Amino acid sequence: MSRLLSTFLIAASLLSGTVAAAGAAPGGAPAGVPGDLGPPQGEPIHAVLGIPPNVPPPLNRKTPAKVIVDLEVVEKEMPISEGVTYTYWTFGGTVPGSFIRVRQGDTVEFHLKNAPDNKMPHNIDLHGVTGPGGGAASSFTAPGHESQFTFKALNAGIYVYHCATAPVGMHIANGMYGLILVEPPEGLPKVDHEYYVMQGDFYTTGKYREKGHQPFDMDKAIDEHPTYVLFNGREGALTGDNALTAKTGETVRLFVGNGGPNLVSSFHVIGEIFDKVYYEGGKHAQENVQTTLIPSGGAMMAEFHVDVPGSYVLVDHSIFRAFNKGAMGILKVDGPENKAIYSGKEVDSVYLGDRAGPNLHAVSVAAKANAAGTLSKDDQVKAGQQLFAGTCSVCHQANGEGLPNVFPPLAKSDYLAKQSKEQLIAIPLHGRTGKVTVNGKDYDSVMPPMSQLTDDEVANILTYVLNSWGNPGGQISAEEVSKVRAQPAPAAAGH
Ligand SMILES: [Cu+2]
């Protein structure tokens, strides 16, 4: 039995006494409404809201209270990826929205404000509310207005809230979702860290990582064909300097929701096993879980202890979403090695490539320079170096030397030096198969097409390759790549 589990059982048995006592209190639970713990007691309390990935502190309250929640809808432009911006609609200025924490039996007075310079009307449907529309029916709010409604939180659990104003899918796709935790009367077992993570799928007119401002694409959304699948609304929200943290020997509780609007998440943490998962956000826990399903508009709570230092990667295990659409986060665990459990060696570079650190800075510098019309060869080389590390180095190696008999060298490659610009651009776009002789050695293998790269990414990578390791130099522009992309792929490159 895990330490966490035994702690929980002790806590539960101690606290079941408290619950019974509360039920027997004067003016206690009226008959007939399960979950009602009686009228609110004491002065009204203003809810402390959690800014993701943070969760407000445990309530440690023994009686039901009146809790006032103030939540403001803010429409604003924010980065969705390095050098890419998106106009989000938010609850509280962040995606996901502010984390709300109340106790079962609380009477919640909800104030929804729609900021005056917003363009759209909004409302809120909280899945923890018993009542029509989960509050949506009472909270339609025009820009510059405020709505108020009150509900009693009858069921303990972790619940999604979201905007439900037409077109509902669009409001959700723009980031209008968050979580509300209704603590059981006895509270949750104590842990060292609680974190707030929410998955969402995003639909932009441009490709994944295509630079500049990207508008919402309704057709892609209807086709359920996301450009990005993200934790906490932005690529890199939980990696590099933004990684979640813990120390060896500590316990962690993750509240993970899925805003959708379309995808179901196969939520997994690479290298960890969840001691407990309160699946679907409800009362029962499954133990020793590897991957748990989180439906769109659903949530779960996972508890585990960390024993071995290193980086644990949060992913949607529908794995293209992790590596090609952004659904990745990191829990960084510090502490002494525990070789009896794991021999050691970092997982970062194995799994993450360029996403391991916040190292795409040069890429956004190049994107900005490109937008301003001042892009220099040097900008391209620097951006290309970072992109090469994430895309090409796994085979051709960081120093361009390749691997004998398997991956040909790009460093001082006589084959590369002979190619026209068009031929060179076609290699990453269409891949390469068949026999090729590089520096006197024959290779007969397959390089897969990397057509997911944008025009400027291909241009920057090739400019970097041309200007590195003694190669002949030169410069390739995004326009040149775009022209080659528009041509039909050669029937079989290399034959
Ligand atoms: Cu809305």
Automatic annotation (TrEMBL):
Cofactor: Cu(+); FAD; Cu(2+)
Cofactor-binding details, from the entry: Binds 1 Cu(+) ion.
Secretion signal, residue range per the UniProt entry: 1-24
Any one GO MF annotation of this record: nitrite reductase (NO-forming) activity
Location relative to the cell: Periplasm
Enzyme class, UniProt record, top EC level: oxidoreductase
Entry keywords, A to Z: Copper, FAD, Flavoprotein, Heme, Iron, Metal-binding, Nitrate assimilation, Oxidoreductase, Periplasm, Repeat, Signal
Chain ranges of the Cytochrome c domain: 379-469
Phosphoprotein recorded as keyword: no
Metabolic or biological pathway, per its Swiss-Prot or TrEMBL entry: Nitrogen metabolism; nitrate reduction (denitrification); dinitrogen from nitrate: step 2/4
Keyword Repeat: yes
Catalytic activity: nitric oxide + Fe(III)-[cytochrome c] + H2O = Fe(II)-[cytochrome c] + nitrite + 2 H(+)
EC number: 1.7.2.1
Primary location group: periplasm
Assembly and interaction partners: Homotrimer.
NCBIfam families: Cu_nitrite_red
Family membership: Belongs to the multicopper oxidase family.
Full protein name: Copper-containing nitrite reductase
